[in-house]
């Protein structure tokens, strides 16, 4: 996240980076997503082979090596580029690029202090280590926890998985095509079209917007899981449509219009964070059974990366050719998002594992499956009770 933000800021706001426009500006900004797209088919296999910690360690090492051979959050990136604005040579954009290595260094130092993924351990015949981690982090040390035992129960059907997959792929598109890349990568262009032309003013506003996004994103991420998922997604999409529509209507070349444009740009981030920030991965974790999550989240990335590449690439072309009318395209797409969420997205909050597993099945089938699970659990409980009674009888006879 830091690298594309820093790159977009350098291209958009730093005069010494040159002044690419249209196609060239789009391809420079979108090339990061293109590299990520090419790596996606290999990610599940690397994760399964190296484990979660090994994958993060390797990825961080590659980032560091890439920075040396090729050349923080968003607030850090914006702050750094604002500070290097007075360096009137190539180091004005090289310094933010090199500083991208800092998070990867921290990941390499601390990643092996974290526990390994239980799923990966089980897939490599290390069940005892997986159980120790589950007991420690999911059952507060209780080795007899029914919750830990239930985590290996994953019931699903092909029909349900197809709908899960459709939602996952559309989430990948929604997180990139909702107008966020337009603001993140082309903030300076938008301010310029609103009549704000000074580079320093643009960077101050960009830094302020990044700080505001950090604050509201943090607050929303803390409280978002307390509300119903589908309601939050509907609120998010409706708010984004209202924001973009009001933004387009307010476009005029005068001082008051400039203030209105800045206001709606700042309004956008909390609207987006309600649904397409922390909630996205929470929702996918609830949608997918445990053993499927790694691969299915890779599917989400497989769609979000090309979507990010496409929209980052076409944004400067659209702005150059039709100006503010480009916002109408986003208004139309956001209307489609509202429709899709309303008719397709299920509610996943406050549901049991069995209910989530049969989320898209007909009620009769789901009820039969739930009864079967309850019967198996009850049977196991009776066996435990009978075993204890038998042991007690043996002890009495021996006594």
TrEMBL record:
<feature type="transmembrane region" description="Helical">
    <location>
        <begin position="95"/>
        <end position="114"/>
    </location>
</feature>
<feature type="transmembrane region" description="Helical">
    <location>
        <begin position="207"/>
        <end position="225"/>
    </location>
</feature>
<feature type="region of interest" description="Disordered">
    <location>
        <begin position="376"/>
        <end position="399"/>
    </location>
</feature>
<keyword id="KW-1133">Transmembrane helix</keyword>
<dbReference type="GO" id="GO:0005351">
    <property type="term" value="F:carbohydrate:proton symporter activity"/>
</dbReference>
<feature type="transmembrane region" description="Helical">
    <location>
        <begin position="256"/>
        <end position="279"/>
    </location>
</feature>
<dbReference type="InterPro" id="IPR036259">
    <property type="entry name" value="MFS_trans_sf"/>
</dbReference>
<feature type="compositionally biased region" description="Polar residues">
    <location>
        <begin position="390"/>
        <end position="399"/>
    </location>
</feature>
<feature type="compositionally biased region" description="Basic and acidic residues">
    <location>
        <begin position="376"/>
        <end position="389"/>
    </location>
</feature>
<keyword id="KW-0472">Membrane</keyword>
<feature type="transmembrane region" description="Helical">
    <location>
        <begin position="55"/>
        <end position="75"/>
    </location>
</feature>
<keyword id="KW-0812">Transmembrane</keyword>
<protein>
    <submittedName>
        <fullName>MFS general substrate transporter</fullName>
    </submittedName>
</protein>
<dbReference type="GO" id="GO:0016020">
    <property type="term" value="C:membrane"/>
</dbReference>
<feature type="transmembrane region" description="Helical">
    <location>
        <begin position="23"/>
        <end position="43"/>
    </location>
</feature>
<feature type="transmembrane region" description="Helical">
    <location>
        <begin position="299"/>
        <end position="318"/>
    </location>
</feature>
<feature type="transmembrane region" description="Helical">
    <location>
        <begin position="324"/>
        <end position="345"/>
    </location>
</feature>
<dbReference type="Pfam" id="PF00083">
    <property type="entry name" value="Sugar_tr"/>
</dbReference>
<dbReference type="InterPro" id="IPR005828">
    <property type="entry name" value="MFS_sugar_transport-like"/>
</dbReference>
<feature type="transmembrane region" description="Helical">
    <location>
        <begin position="232"/>
        <end position="250"/>
    </location>
</feature>
<dbReference type="InterPro" id="IPR050360">
    <property type="entry name" value="MFS_Sugar_Transporters"/>
</dbReference>
<feature type="transmembrane region" description="Helical">
    <location>
        <begin position="165"/>
        <end position="187"/>
    </location>
</feature>
């Amino acid at each position: 996240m830091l690298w594309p933000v820093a790159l977009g800021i350098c291209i958009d706001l730093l005069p010494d980076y040159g002044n690419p426009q249209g196609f060239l500006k789009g391809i420079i900004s979108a090339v990061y997503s293109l590299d990520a797209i090419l790596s996606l088919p290999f990610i599940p296999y690397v994760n399964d082979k190296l484990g979660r910690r090994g994958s993060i360690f390797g990825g961080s090492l590659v980032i560091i090596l890439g920075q040396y051979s090729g050349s923080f959050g968003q607030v850090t990136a914006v702050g750094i580029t604002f500070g290097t604005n007075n360096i009137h040579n190539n180091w004005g954009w090289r310094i933010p690029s090199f500083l991208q290595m800092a998070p990867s260094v921290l990941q390499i130092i601390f990643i092996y202090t974290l526990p390994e993924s239980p799923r990966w351990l089980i897939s490599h015949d290390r069940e005892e280590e997986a159980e120790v981690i589950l007991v420690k982090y999911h059952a507060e040390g209780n080795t007899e926890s029914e919750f830990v035992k239930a985590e290996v129960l994953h019931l699903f059907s092909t029909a349900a998985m197809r709908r899960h997959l459709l939602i996952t792929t559309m989430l990948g598109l929604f997180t990139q095509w909702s107008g966020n890349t337009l603001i993140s990568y082309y903030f300076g262009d938008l301010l310029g079209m609103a009549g704000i032309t000074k580079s320093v003013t643009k960077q101050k506003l960009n830094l302020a917007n990044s700080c505001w996004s950090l604050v509201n994103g943090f607050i929303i991420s803390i409280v978002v899981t307390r509300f119903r998922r589908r309601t939050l997604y509907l609120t998010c999409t409706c708010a984004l449509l209202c924001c973009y529509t009001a933004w387009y209507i307010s476009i005029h070349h005068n001082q008051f219009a400039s203030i209105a444009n800045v206001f709606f740009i700042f309004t956008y981030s909390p609207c987006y964070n309600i649904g397409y920030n922390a909630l996205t991965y929470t929702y996918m974790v609830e949608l997918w059974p445990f053993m499927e999550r790694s691969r299915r989240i890779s599917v989400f990335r497989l769609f979000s990366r090309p979507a990010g590449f496409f929209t980052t690439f076409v944004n400067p072309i659209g702005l150059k050719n039709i100006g503010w009318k480009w916002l109408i395209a986003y208004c139309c797409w956001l209307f489609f998002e509202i429709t899709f969420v309303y008719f397709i997205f299920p509610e996943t909050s406050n549901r049991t594992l069995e209910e989530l597993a049969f989320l898209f099945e007909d009620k009769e089938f789901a009820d039969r499956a739930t009864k079967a699970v309850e019967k198996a659990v009850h049977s196991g409980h009776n066996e435990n009770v009978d075993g204890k009674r038998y042991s007690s009888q043996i002890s009495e006879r021996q006594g």
